[in-house]
Amino acid sequence: MSPEWQTVWLTLKLAGITTVLLMVIGTPIAWWLARSSHWLRQPIAAIVALPLVLPPTVLGFYLLLLMGPEGMVGTLTDSLGLGTLPFTFAGLVVASVIYSLPFTVQPLENVFSTVNERMLEVAATLRASPLDRFFSVVIPLARPGFLTAAVLTFAHTLGEFGVVLMIGGNIPGETRVLSVAIYDHVETLEYGKAHLLAGGMLVFSFLVLLTLYLINGRLNNGNLKS
Amino acid sequence: MREPGILARFDAGFERFRMQVDLQLPGNGVTALFGHSGCGKTTLLRCIAGLQACSGRLSVNGDVWQDHNVSLPVHKRPLAYVFQETSLFPHLSVKGNLDFGYRRTPATQRRIHPQQVIDWLRLSRLLDRMPERLSGGERQRVAIARALLTSPRLLLMDEPLSALDQASKRDILPYLETLRDTLDIPIVYVSHSAAEVARLADHIVMMDQGRVVAQGGLQETLARPDQPFALEEDAAVIVPAVIRERDLQWHLCRAEFEGGSLWLRDDHQPEPGTRVRLQILARDVSIALAANQDQSIQNLLPARVMDMSAEQRPGMTTVSLQAGETSFLARITSRSAHQLGLGPGMEVCLQIKSVAIIE
Protein backbone atom coordinates (compact mmCIF):
# COMPACT_ATOMS: atom_id res chain seq x y z
CA MET A 1 0.00 0.00 0.00
CA SER A 2 1.35 3.42 -0.86
CA PRO A 3 1.93 5.69 2.13
CA GLU A 4 -0.88 7.96 0.86
CA TRP A 5 -3.45 5.16 0.82
CA GLN A 6 -2.15 3.88 4.12
CA THR A 7 -2.92 7.27 5.63
CA VAL A 8 -6.40 7.42 4.09
CA TRP A 9 -7.21 3.89 5.26
CA LEU A 10 -5.95 4.59 8.78
CA THR A 11 -8.04 7.76 8.97
CA LEU A 12 -11.21 6.02 7.79
CA LYS A 13 -10.55 3.15 10.19
CA LEU A 14 -10.15 5.57 13.10
CA ALA A 15 -13.31 7.49 12.19
CA GLY A 16 -15.28 4.29 11.66
CA ILE A 17 -14.28 2.64 14.93
CA THR A 18 -14.83 5.89 16.85
CA THR A 19 -18.30 6.30 15.35
CA VAL A 20 -19.37 2.76 16.21
CA LEU A 21 -18.03 3.06 19.76
CA LEU A 22 -19.66 6.45 20.26
CA MET A 23 -23.05 5.22 19.05
CA VAL A 24 -22.88 2.58 21.77
CA ILE A 25 -21.51 4.88 24.49
CA GLY A 26 -23.31 8.07 23.50
CA THR A 27 -26.83 6.66 23.19
CA PRO A 28 -27.37 5.86 26.89
CA ILE A 29 -25.72 9.15 27.90
CA ALA A 30 -27.96 11.12 25.53
CA TRP A 31 -31.05 9.21 26.69
CA TRP A 32 -30.25 9.96 30.30
CA LEU A 33 -29.57 13.62 29.58
CA ALA A 34 -32.84 13.93 27.64
CA ARG A 35 -34.96 12.27 30.37
CA SER A 36 -33.33 12.93 33.71
CA SER A 37 -34.09 15.68 36.15
CA HIS A 38 -31.27 14.57 38.46
CA TRP A 39 -29.11 17.36 39.89
CA LEU A 40 -26.09 15.84 38.11
CA ARG A 41 -27.73 16.38 34.74
CA GLN A 42 -26.37 19.89 34.14
CA PRO A 43 -22.78 19.11 35.29
CA ILE A 44 -22.69 15.99 33.09
CA ALA A 45 -24.11 17.92 30.14
CA ALA A 46 -21.35 20.51 30.62
CA ILE A 47 -18.62 17.87 30.76
CA VAL A 48 -19.94 16.21 27.60
CA ALA A 49 -19.87 19.58 25.81
CA LEU A 50 -16.34 20.48 26.96
CA PRO A 51 -14.58 19.20 23.79
CA LEU A 52 -16.67 21.73 21.81
CA VAL A 53 -15.03 24.67 23.53
CA LEU A 54 -11.61 23.41 24.64
CA PRO A 55 -8.67 23.88 22.28
CA PRO A 56 -7.79 20.36 21.05
CA THR A 57 -4.26 20.81 22.34
CA VAL A 58 -5.56 21.30 25.88
CA LEU A 59 -7.55 18.12 25.64
CA GLY A 60 -4.61 16.30 24.06
CA PHE A 61 -2.22 17.56 26.72
CA TYR A 62 -4.29 16.21 29.61
CA LEU A 63 -4.99 12.96 27.81
CA LEU A 64 -1.25 12.58 27.26
CA LEU A 65 -0.60 13.07 30.97
CA LEU A 66 -3.46 10.79 31.99
CA MET A 67 -2.56 7.97 29.61
CA GLY A 68 1.20 8.32 29.98
CA PRO A 69 3.32 6.05 32.21
CA GLU A 70 2.83 8.40 35.20
CA GLY A 71 -0.91 8.99 34.65
CA MET A 72 -3.79 7.18 36.31
CA VAL A 73 -4.99 5.51 33.14
CA GLY A 74 -1.41 4.81 32.07
CA THR A 75 -0.57 3.00 35.32
CA LEU A 76 -3.73 0.97 34.95
CA THR A 77 -3.14 -0.06 31.33
CA ASP A 78 0.50 -0.77 32.13
CA SER A 79 -0.35 -2.99 35.09
CA LEU A 80 -2.82 -4.88 32.86
CA GLY A 81 0.07 -5.59 30.50
CA LEU A 82 -1.36 -3.37 27.77
CA GLY A 83 1.49 -0.87 27.79
CA THR A 84 0.68 2.80 27.60
CA LEU A 85 -1.73 4.29 25.08
CA PRO A 86 0.03 7.41 23.74
CA PHE A 87 1.56 6.96 20.30
CA THR A 88 -0.62 3.94 19.52
CA PHE A 89 -3.73 3.54 17.38
CA ALA A 90 -5.72 2.45 20.46
CA GLY A 91 -4.71 5.70 22.15
CA LEU A 92 -6.03 7.64 19.13
CA VAL A 93 -9.35 5.79 19.35
CA VAL A 94 -9.71 6.64 23.06
CA ALA A 95 -8.85 10.28 22.42
CA SER A 96 -11.25 10.49 19.44
CA VAL A 97 -14.09 9.01 21.45
CA ILE A 98 -13.68 11.75 24.04
CA TYR A 99 -13.05 14.48 21.47
CA SER A 100 -16.10 13.62 19.35
CA LEU A 101 -18.47 12.78 22.23
CA PRO A 102 -20.59 15.96 21.98
CA PHE A 103 -21.09 15.41 18.26
CA THR A 104 -22.83 12.15 19.06
CA VAL A 105 -24.59 13.06 22.27
CA GLN A 106 -26.08 16.42 21.34
CA PRO A 107 -27.99 15.39 18.20
CA LEU A 108 -29.21 12.26 19.98
CA GLU A 109 -30.28 14.21 23.03
CA ASN A 110 -32.20 16.63 20.82
CA VAL A 111 -34.06 13.91 19.01
CA PHE A 112 -34.74 11.92 22.19
CA SER A 113 -36.34 14.92 23.82
CA THR A 114 -38.82 15.09 20.93
CA VAL A 115 -39.98 11.50 21.46
CA ASN A 116 -43.46 11.72 22.91
CA GLU A 117 -43.71 10.25 26.41
CA ARG A 118 -47.16 9.00 25.47
CA MET A 119 -45.66 6.63 22.89
CA LEU A 120 -43.59 4.98 25.63
CA GLU A 121 -46.63 4.66 27.88
CA VAL A 122 -48.58 3.09 25.04
CA ALA A 123 -45.77 0.60 24.43
CA ALA A 124 -45.69 -0.24 28.15
CA THR A 125 -49.42 -1.01 28.18
CA LEU A 126 -48.76 -3.23 25.16
CA ARG A 127 -46.40 -5.39 27.23
CA ALA A 128 -43.08 -3.89 26.07
CA SER A 129 -40.34 -3.87 28.73
CA PRO A 130 -38.22 -0.71 29.11
CA LEU A 131 -35.41 -2.03 26.89
CA ASP A 132 -37.90 -3.33 24.36
CA ARG A 133 -39.57 0.11 24.32
CA PHE A 134 -36.26 1.73 23.56
CA PHE A 135 -35.49 -0.52 20.62
CA SER A 136 -38.98 -0.84 19.19
CA VAL A 137 -40.24 2.72 19.68
CA VAL A 138 -37.50 5.22 20.51
CA ILE A 139 -34.91 4.14 17.96
CA PRO A 140 -37.32 4.04 14.99
CA LEU A 141 -38.78 7.44 15.96
CA ALA A 142 -35.27 8.88 16.48
CA ARG A 143 -33.80 7.57 13.22
CA PRO A 144 -32.98 10.96 11.70
CA GLY A 145 -31.12 11.91 14.88
CA PHE A 146 -29.02 8.74 14.76
CA LEU A 147 -28.08 9.44 11.16
CA THR A 148 -27.07 13.01 11.95
CA ALA A 149 -25.09 11.93 14.99
CA ALA A 150 -23.22 9.22 13.09
CA VAL A 151 -22.32 11.45 10.18
CA LEU A 152 -21.22 14.37 12.36
CA THR A 153 -19.12 12.08 14.55
CA PHE A 154 -17.49 10.40 11.58
CA ALA A 155 -16.73 13.67 9.80
CA HIS A 156 -15.50 15.37 12.95
CA THR A 157 -13.12 12.51 13.72
CA LEU A 158 -11.77 12.64 10.16
CA GLY A 159 -10.73 16.25 10.66
CA GLU A 160 -9.11 15.76 14.07
CA PHE A 161 -5.64 17.30 14.22
CA GLY A 162 -4.57 18.88 17.48
CA VAL A 163 -5.42 15.97 19.73
CA VAL A 164 -3.75 13.49 17.37
CA LEU A 165 -0.60 15.52 17.25
CA MET A 166 -0.46 15.74 21.04
CA ILE A 167 -0.97 12.10 21.87
CA GLY A 168 -0.42 10.22 18.62
CA GLY A 169 2.48 11.87 16.94
CA ASN A 170 3.13 10.98 13.38
CA ILE A 171 3.89 7.26 13.05
CA PRO A 172 3.07 6.00 9.55
CA GLY A 173 0.57 3.15 9.62
CA GLU A 174 -0.06 3.63 13.34
CA THR A 175 -1.04 7.20 14.10
CA ARG A 176 -0.37 9.19 10.94
CA VAL A 177 -3.86 10.37 9.89
CA LEU A 178 -4.88 12.60 6.98
CA SER A 179 -4.81 15.93 8.68
CA VAL A 180 -1.31 15.32 10.02
CA ALA A 181 -0.10 14.08 6.62
CA ILE A 182 -1.43 17.22 4.94
CA TYR A 183 0.37 19.36 7.48
CA ASP A 184 3.58 17.45 6.83
CA HIS A 185 3.30 17.87 3.08
CA VAL A 186 2.79 21.59 3.43
CA GLU A 187 5.75 21.85 5.82
CA THR A 188 7.99 20.18 3.29
CA LEU A 189 6.47 22.26 0.45
CA GLU A 190 5.00 19.18 -1.27
CA TYR A 191 1.93 21.14 -2.36
CA GLY A 192 0.91 18.60 -5.01
CA LYS A 193 0.56 15.80 -2.47
CA ALA A 194 -1.12 18.18 0.00
CA HIS A 195 -3.63 19.14 -2.71
CA LEU A 196 -4.44 15.53 -3.41
CA LEU A 197 -5.28 14.77 0.20
CA ALA A 198 -6.89 18.11 1.02
CA GLY A 199 -8.96 18.14 -2.15
CA GLY A 200 -10.01 14.56 -1.58
CA MET A 201 -11.08 15.44 1.95
CA LEU A 202 -13.06 18.45 0.73
CA VAL A 203 -14.96 16.45 -1.88
CA PHE A 204 -15.53 13.58 0.52
CA SER A 205 -16.89 15.83 3.27
CA PHE A 206 -19.21 17.57 0.85
CA LEU A 207 -20.55 14.27 -0.43
CA VAL A 208 -21.12 12.96 3.09
CA LEU A 209 -23.09 16.05 4.11
CA LEU A 210 -25.05 16.08 0.86
CA THR A 211 -26.03 12.46 1.42
CA LEU A 212 -27.07 13.25 4.98
CA TYR A 213 -29.27 16.15 3.94
CA LEU A 214 -30.84 14.16 1.12
CA ILE A 215 -31.64 11.22 3.39
CA ASN A 216 -32.94 13.41 6.21
CA GLY A 217 -35.04 15.35 3.72
CA ARG A 218 -36.54 12.12 2.47
CA LEU A 219 -37.16 10.81 6.00
CA ASN A 220 -38.95 14.00 6.97
CA ASN A 221 -41.00 14.14 3.80
CA GLY A 222 -41.79 10.49 4.19
CA ASN A 223 -43.02 11.09 7.71
CA LEU A 224 -45.20 13.96 6.59
CA LYS A 225 -46.67 12.20 3.59
CA SER A 226 -47.16 8.61 4.60
CA MET B 1 -58.67 -16.09 48.91
CA ARG B 2 -59.67 -14.87 45.47
CA GLU B 3 -61.62 -11.69 45.76
CA PRO B 4 -63.73 -11.10 42.68
CA GLY B 5 -63.78 -7.75 40.98
CA ILE B 6 -61.36 -4.89 41.19
CA LEU B 7 -60.31 -3.69 44.62
CA ALA B 8 -58.50 -0.38 44.51
CA ARG B 9 -57.42 1.60 47.52
CA PHE B 10 -55.21 4.58 46.81
CA ASP B 11 -54.05 7.43 48.96
CA ALA B 12 -51.51 9.78 47.43
CA GLY B 13 -50.96 13.48 47.04
CA PHE B 14 -50.81 15.04 43.59
CA GLU B 15 -50.20 18.55 42.44
CA ARG B 16 -53.81 19.64 42.30
CA PHE B 17 -55.56 17.28 44.68
CA ARG B 18 -55.19 14.37 47.04
CA MET B 19 -56.34 11.04 45.67
CA GLN B 20 -58.18 9.10 48.34
CA VAL B 21 -60.27 6.26 47.01
CA ASP B 22 -61.39 2.89 48.26
CA LEU B 23 -63.26 1.15 45.50
CA GLN B 24 -64.74 -2.22 44.87
CA LEU B 25 -65.69 -2.50 41.23
CA PRO B 26 -67.51 -5.42 39.62
CA GLY B 27 -65.40 -7.98 37.77
CA ASN B 28 -67.37 -7.62 34.56
CA GLY B 29 -69.35 -5.05 32.59
CA VAL B 30 -68.56 -1.39 32.09
CA THR B 31 -67.75 0.84 35.05
CA ALA B 32 -67.79 4.54 34.27
CA LEU B 33 -65.50 6.88 36.19
CA PHE B 34 -67.50 10.04 35.89
CA GLY B 35 -66.86 13.61 36.93
CA HIS B 36 -65.84 17.07 35.82
CA SER B 37 -62.42 17.61 34.30
CA GLY B 38 -59.80 17.80 37.01
CA CYS B 39 -61.71 15.55 39.40
CA GLY B 40 -58.99 12.89 39.30
CA LYS B 41 -60.71 10.28 37.18
CA THR B 42 -57.91 10.03 34.62
CA THR B 43 -55.32 9.98 37.41
CA LEU B 44 -57.18 7.11 39.06
CA LEU B 45 -57.15 5.22 35.76
CA ARG B 46 -53.41 5.84 35.39
CA CYS B 47 -52.84 4.58 38.93
CA ILE B 48 -54.75 1.40 38.12
CA ALA B 49 -52.61 0.95 34.99
CA GLY B 50 -49.41 1.62 36.91
CA LEU B 51 -48.58 4.58 34.65
CA GLN B 52 -48.67 6.83 37.69
CA ALA B 53 -46.92 5.93 40.91
CA CYS B 54 -49.54 6.00 43.64
CA SER B 55 -49.31 4.37 47.04
CA GLY B 56 -52.06 1.92 47.80
CA ARG B 57 -53.33 -1.52 47.05
CA LEU B 58 -54.84 -2.94 43.89
CA SER B 59 -56.10 -6.38 43.02
CA VAL B 60 -57.93 -7.50 39.91
CA ASN B 61 -60.08 -10.62 40.14
CA GLY B 62 -57.91 -12.00 42.91
CA ASP B 63 -54.49 -11.14 41.49
CA VAL B 64 -52.60 -8.53 43.48
CA TRP B 65 -51.05 -5.94 41.13
CA GLN B 66 -49.94 -3.55 43.80
CA ASP B 67 -49.45 -3.70 47.53
CA HIS B 68 -47.23 -1.85 49.95
CA ASN B 69 -44.14 -3.88 49.07
CA VAL B 70 -44.83 -4.85 45.44
CA SER B 71 -46.01 -2.99 42.40
CA LEU B 72 -46.08 -4.71 39.04
CA PRO B 73 -44.59 -2.52 36.32
CA VAL B 74 -47.04 -1.52 33.61
CA HIS B 75 -45.78 -4.02 31.06
CA LYS B 76 -46.34 -6.91 33.46
CA ARG B 77 -49.97 -6.00 34.18
CA PRO B 78 -52.38 -7.90 31.90
CA LEU B 79 -54.38 -4.82 31.03
CA ALA B 80 -55.09 -2.79 27.96
CA TYR B 81 -55.33 0.98 27.86
CA VAL B 82 -57.01 3.14 25.25
CA PHE B 83 -55.77 6.70 25.43
CA GLN B 84 -57.74 9.85 24.85
CA GLU B 85 -55.91 11.11 21.79
CA THR B 86 -54.32 9.34 18.89
CA SER B 87 -51.66 7.06 20.21
CA LEU B 88 -50.78 4.93 17.21
CA PHE B 89 -47.09 4.41 16.52
CA PRO B 90 -46.43 6.69 13.54
CA HIS B 91 -43.60 4.50 12.23
CA LEU B 92 -45.76 1.40 11.93
CA SER B 93 -48.62 0.56 9.57
CA VAL B 94 -52.03 -0.35 10.97
CA LYS B 95 -50.99 -3.98 10.79
CA GLY B 96 -47.69 -3.24 12.53
CA ASN B 97 -49.56 -1.41 15.27
CA LEU B 98 -52.00 -4.28 15.74
CA ASP B 99 -49.16 -6.81 15.93
CA PHE B 100 -47.17 -4.79 18.48
CA GLY B 101 -48.97 -6.02 21.57
CA TYR B 102 -50.10 -9.34 20.09
CA ARG B 103 -46.50 -10.44 19.46
CA ARG B 104 -45.59 -9.56 23.05
CA THR B 105 -48.43 -11.56 24.56
CA PRO B 106 -47.38 -15.13 25.44
CA ALA B 107 -49.09 -17.57 23.07
CA THR B 108 -50.73 -19.43 25.95
CA GLN B 109 -52.43 -16.22 27.14
CA ARG B 110 -53.83 -15.24 23.76
CA ARG B 111 -57.60 -15.46 23.75
CA ILE B 112 -58.30 -12.73 21.20
CA HIS B 113 -56.85 -13.08 17.72
CA PRO B 114 -56.21 -10.55 14.97
CA GLN B 115 -58.89 -11.78 12.59
CA GLN B 116 -61.54 -11.41 15.32
CA VAL B 117 -60.79 -7.79 16.11
CA ILE B 118 -60.30 -6.96 12.45
CA ASP B 119 -63.84 -8.22 11.88
CA TRP B 120 -65.33 -6.59 15.00
CA LEU B 121 -63.88 -3.21 14.25
CA ARG B 122 -63.97 -3.51 10.43
CA LEU B 123 -60.31 -2.84 9.85
CA SER B 124 -59.56 -5.16 6.92
CA ARG B 125 -59.39 -2.33 4.39
CA LEU B 126 -57.06 -0.25 6.56
CA LEU B 127 -54.33 -2.79 7.40
CA ASP B 128 -51.66 -1.47 5.02
CA ARG B 129 -52.22 2.23 5.75
CA MET B 130 -49.97 4.39 7.86
CA PRO B 131 -51.65 6.13 10.85
CA GLU B 132 -51.30 9.58 9.24
CA ARG B 133 -53.67 8.52 6.51
CA LEU B 134 -56.51 7.50 8.82
CA SER B 135 -59.44 9.59 10.04
CA GLY B 136 -59.77 10.27 13.77
CA GLY B 137 -62.44 7.62 14.19
CA GLU B 138 -60.43 5.03 12.27
CA ARG B 139 -57.36 5.71 14.40
CA GLN B 140 -59.30 5.16 17.59
CA ARG B 141 -60.76 1.93 16.21
CA VAL B 142 -57.22 0.72 15.45
CA ALA B 143 -56.06 1.77 18.93
CA ILE B 144 -58.92 -0.20 20.53
CA ALA B 145 -58.16 -3.24 18.39
CA ARG B 146 -54.46 -3.02 19.20
CA ALA B 147 -55.23 -2.89 22.93
CA LEU B 148 -57.59 -5.88 22.75
CA LEU B 149 -54.98 -8.02 20.98
CA THR B 150 -53.02 -8.29 24.22
CA SER B 151 -55.99 -10.37 25.50
CA PRO B 152 -56.26 -8.15 28.57
CA ARG B 153 -57.88 -9.14 31.85
CA LEU B 154 -58.93 -5.51 32.34
CA LEU B 155 -59.66 -2.86 29.71
CA LEU B 156 -59.08 0.76 30.68
CA MET B 157 -60.41 3.53 28.44
CA ASP B 158 -59.61 7.18 29.03
CA GLU B 159 -62.27 9.25 27.28
CA PRO B 160 -61.68 7.40 24.02
CA LEU B 161 -64.26 9.50 22.17
CA SER B 162 -63.56 12.97 23.48
CA ALA B 163 -61.05 13.91 20.77
CA LEU B 164 -63.48 12.91 18.02
CA ASP B 165 -66.11 14.93 16.17
CA GLN B 166 -69.80 14.07 16.55
CA ALA B 167 -69.91 11.95 13.40
CA SER B 168 -66.92 9.83 14.48
CA LYS B 169 -68.43 9.41 17.94
CA ARG B 170 -71.64 8.12 16.43
CA ASP B 171 -69.50 5.87 14.27
CA ILE B 172 -67.57 4.32 17.19
CA LEU B 173 -70.20 3.97 19.93
CA PRO B 174 -71.81 0.87 18.38
CA TYR B 175 -68.37 -0.79 18.34
CA LEU B 176 -67.95 -0.09 22.04
CA GLU B 177 -71.39 -1.58 22.69
CA THR B 178 -70.34 -4.67 20.76
CA LEU B 179 -67.23 -4.98 22.91
CA ARG B 180 -69.23 -4.57 26.10
CA ASP B 181 -71.57 -7.34 25.02
CA THR B 182 -68.87 -9.63 23.58
CA LEU B 183 -65.92 -9.41 25.94
CA ASP B 184 -65.94 -11.18 29.23
CA ILE B 185 -63.64 -8.72 30.99
CA PRO B 186 -64.23 -5.67 33.15
CA ILE B 187 -63.99 -2.34 31.36
CA VAL B 188 -63.26 0.88 33.26
CA TYR B 189 -64.32 3.84 31.17
CA VAL B 190 -63.42 7.41 32.06
CA SER B 191 -65.84 10.02 30.79
CA HIS B 192 -67.28 13.42 31.51
CA SER B 193 -70.06 12.88 29.02
CA ALA B 194 -73.31 11.90 30.68
CA ALA B 195 -74.60 10.65 27.33
CA GLU B 196 -71.73 8.19 26.84
CA VAL B 197 -72.04 6.96 30.41
CA ALA B 198 -75.79 6.54 30.07
CA ARG B 199 -75.32 4.53 26.94
CA LEU B 200 -72.43 2.28 27.90
CA ALA B 201 -72.07 1.91 31.63
CA ASP B 202 -73.50 -0.69 33.98
CA HIS B 203 -71.83 0.71 37.05
CA ILE B 204 -70.83 4.26 37.86
CA VAL B 205 -68.24 5.88 40.12
CA MET B 206 -68.71 9.63 40.53
CA MET B 207 -65.61 11.54 41.48
CA ASP B 208 -64.79 14.99 42.73
CA GLN B 209 -61.40 16.35 43.84
CA GLY B 210 -59.77 12.93 44.01
CA ARG B 211 -62.55 11.38 46.07
CA VAL B 212 -65.44 9.12 45.25
CA VAL B 213 -68.70 10.94 45.94
CA ALA B 214 -71.11 8.21 44.85
CA GLN B 215 -70.91 4.77 43.33
CA GLY B 216 -73.13 1.85 42.48
CA GLY B 217 -75.26 0.43 39.70
CA LEU B 218 -75.96 2.98 36.98
CA GLN B 219 -79.73 3.22 37.44
CA GLU B 220 -79.80 3.26 41.24
CA THR B 221 -76.94 5.72 41.49
CA LEU B 222 -78.27 8.18 38.93
CA ALA B 223 -81.64 8.09 40.68
CA ARG B 224 -80.24 9.05 44.08
CA PRO B 225 -81.22 12.65 44.81
CA ASP B 226 -78.17 13.18 47.03
CA GLN B 227 -75.59 12.29 44.37
CA PRO B 228 -73.93 15.48 43.22
CA PHE B 229 -74.91 15.26 39.58
CA ALA B 230 -78.60 14.98 40.49
CA LEU B 231 -78.45 18.69 41.22
CA GLU B 232 -77.13 19.65 37.82
CA GLU B 233 -79.16 20.98 34.96
CA ASP B 234 -79.14 17.77 32.90
CA ALA B 235 -79.59 15.28 35.74
CA ALA B 236 -81.38 12.23 34.39
CA VAL B 237 -82.20 8.62 35.14
CA ILE B 238 -81.64 5.70 32.81
CA VAL B 239 -84.38 3.12 32.48
CA PRO B 240 -83.82 -0.15 30.62
CA ALA B 241 -86.93 -1.08 28.69
CA VAL B 242 -88.30 -3.22 25.88
CA ILE B 243 -90.32 -1.86 22.98
CA ARG B 244 -93.72 -3.57 23.04
CA GLU B 245 -95.84 -1.96 20.36
CA ARG B 246 -95.89 0.80 17.80
CA ASP B 247 -98.79 3.10 17.15
CA LEU B 248 -98.33 4.10 13.54
CA GLN B 249 -101.33 6.42 13.47
CA TRP B 250 -99.95 8.70 16.17
CA HIS B 251 -96.30 8.03 15.48
CA LEU B 252 -95.67 6.65 18.96
CA CYS B 253 -94.27 3.49 20.47
CA ARG B 254 -94.71 1.92 23.88
CA ALA B 255 -91.69 0.92 25.96
CA GLU B 256 -92.25 -1.39 28.90
CA PHE B 257 -90.04 -1.26 31.99
CA GLU B 258 -90.18 -2.84 35.42
CA GLY B 259 -93.10 -1.01 36.89
CA GLY B 260 -94.96 0.43 33.93
CA SER B 261 -94.94 1.61 30.37
CA LEU B 262 -94.04 4.85 28.67
CA TRP B 263 -95.12 6.22 25.32
CA LEU B 264 -92.47 7.87 23.27
CA ARG B 265 -92.08 9.32 19.81
CA ASP B 266 -91.49 6.67 17.20
CA ASP B 267 -88.46 8.41 15.69
CA HIS B 268 -86.14 5.43 15.66
CA GLN B 269 -88.89 3.03 14.55
CA PRO B 270 -87.56 0.18 16.67
CA GLU B 271 -89.01 -3.29 16.11
CA PRO B 272 -91.16 -4.59 18.97
CA GLY B 273 -88.93 -6.68 21.24
CA THR B 274 -85.94 -4.34 20.90
CA ARG B 275 -84.13 -3.63 24.18
CA VAL B 276 -83.45 0.07 24.69
CA ARG B 277 -82.16 2.42 27.35
CA LEU B 278 -84.44 5.36 28.03
CA GLN B 279 -83.16 8.62 29.38
CA ILE B 280 -85.53 10.77 31.41
CA LEU B 281 -84.32 14.18 32.52
CA ALA B 282 -85.29 15.24 36.03
CA ARG B 283 -86.49 18.60 34.71
CA ASP B 284 -88.97 16.82 32.39
CA VAL B 285 -90.68 15.08 35.30
CA SER B 286 -93.36 16.77 37.37
CA ILE B 287 -95.52 15.55 40.23
CA ALA B 288 -99.30 15.60 40.77
CA LEU B 289 -101.19 14.30 43.75
CA ALA B 290 -103.73 12.51 41.55
CA ALA B 291 -103.77 11.30 37.98
CA ASN B 292 -105.27 14.08 35.96
CA GLN B 293 -106.12 12.81 32.45
CA ASP B 294 -107.24 16.24 31.44
CA GLN B 295 -103.91 17.47 30.11
CA SER B 296 -101.38 17.15 27.33
CA ILE B 297 -98.83 14.95 29.02
CA GLN B 298 -99.19 11.33 27.85
CA ASN B 299 -97.07 9.54 30.41
CA LEU B 300 -98.59 9.33 33.85
CA LEU B 301 -97.25 6.83 36.36
CA PRO B 302 -98.29 6.06 39.92
CA ALA B 303 -95.21 6.36 42.10
CA ARG B 304 -94.07 6.69 45.66
CA VAL B 305 -91.87 9.47 46.98
CA MET B 306 -88.67 7.95 48.35
CA ASP B 307 -86.44 10.85 49.23
CA MET B 308 -86.01 14.55 48.75
CA SER B 309 -82.79 16.48 48.41
CA ALA B 310 -82.13 19.39 50.65
CA GLU B 311 -82.54 22.56 48.66
CA GLN B 312 -79.16 23.02 47.04
CA ARG B 313 -80.01 25.55 44.42
CA PRO B 314 -82.30 28.28 45.68
CA GLY B 315 -85.90 27.42 45.06
CA MET B 316 -85.41 23.98 43.51
CA THR B 317 -85.92 20.55 45.05
CA THR B 318 -84.91 17.20 43.57
CA VAL B 319 -87.27 14.38 44.48
CA SER B 320 -86.58 10.69 43.99
CA LEU B 321 -89.54 8.46 43.35
CA GLN B 322 -90.17 4.83 42.66
CA ALA B 323 -92.61 3.40 40.15
CA GLY B 324 -92.65 -0.38 40.48
CA GLU B 325 -88.99 -1.39 40.61
CA THR B 326 -87.76 1.68 38.76
CA SER B 327 -86.45 4.91 40.22
CA PHE B 328 -87.06 8.39 38.82
CA LEU B 329 -85.89 11.86 39.63
CA ALA B 330 -88.13 14.92 39.46
CA ARG B 331 -86.91 18.49 39.60
CA ILE B 332 -89.61 20.78 40.92
CA THR B 333 -89.72 24.15 42.62
CA SER B 334 -89.48 24.10 46.36
CA ARG B 335 -92.74 26.00 46.56
CA SER B 336 -94.58 23.23 44.69
CA ALA B 337 -93.00 20.65 46.98
CA HIS B 338 -94.24 22.64 49.94
CA GLN B 339 -97.73 23.26 48.54
CA LEU B 340 -98.18 19.58 47.63
CA GLY B 341 -96.91 18.66 51.08
CA LEU B 342 -94.52 16.10 49.60
CA GLY B 343 -92.69 13.75 51.91
CA PRO B 344 -91.18 10.28 51.85
CA GLY B 345 -93.76 7.49 51.52
CA MET B 346 -96.43 9.59 49.78
CA GLU B 347 -98.25 8.06 46.81
CA VAL B 348 -98.29 10.50 43.90
CA CYS B 349 -98.56 10.60 40.15
CA LEU B 350 -95.56 11.21 37.94
CA GLN B 351 -96.05 13.25 34.81
CA ILE B 352 -93.29 12.67 32.32
CA LYS B 353 -93.12 15.22 29.57
CA SER B 354 -90.38 13.72 27.46
CA VAL B 355 -88.54 10.43 27.10
CA ALA B 356 -85.52 9.85 24.91
CA ILE B 357 -84.11 6.61 23.62
CA ILE B 358 -80.36 6.65 24.02
CA GLU B 359 -79.01 5.55 20.69
Tell me what the structure shows:
- The complex is a heterodimer of chains A (226) and B (359).
- By secondary structure, chain A is mainly alpha-helical.
- Chain A has one domain: MetI-like (MetI-like fold, Orthogonal Bundle), CATH 1.10.3720.10.
- Chain A is built from eleven helices and no strands.
- Chain A has helices at residues 3-35, 41-53, 56-67, 72-79, 89-113, 117-125, 130-141, 143-158, 162-167, 178-187, 191-225.
- The mean pLDDT of chain A is 89.
- Chain B has 359 residues and is α+β, with helices and mostly antiparallel strands.
- Chain B has two domains: 6-218, P-loop containing nucleotide triphosphate hydrolases (Rossmann fold, 3-Layer(aba) Sandwich), CATH 3.40.50.300; 236-358, RNA polymerase II/Efflux pump adaptor protein, barrel-sandwich hybrid domain (OB fold (Dihydrolipoamide Acetyltransferase, E2P), Beta Barrel).
- Helix content of chain B is 21%, strand content 35%.
- Chain B has helices spanning 41-49, 94-103, 114-120, 136-148, 166-182, 194-200, 218-222, 334-340, and strands at residues 6-13, 18-25, 30-34, 56-60, 63-66, 79-82, 154-158, 187-191, 203-208, 211-217, 236-247, 252-257, 260-265, 275-281, 285-288, 299-308, 316-323, 326-333, 347-352, 356-358.
- Chain B has a six-stranded mixed beta sheet, sandwiched between helices. A five-stranded antiparallel beta sheet of chain B has the order 13-12-11-14-20. In chain B, strands 15-19-16-17-18 form a five-stranded antiparallel beta sheet.
- In chain B, helix 2 runs parallel beside helix 4 and helix 4 packs parallel to helix 5 (166-182).
- The model of chain B has no long low-confidence stretch (mean pLDDT 87).
- The interface between A and B is medium-sized, with 21 and 24 residues.
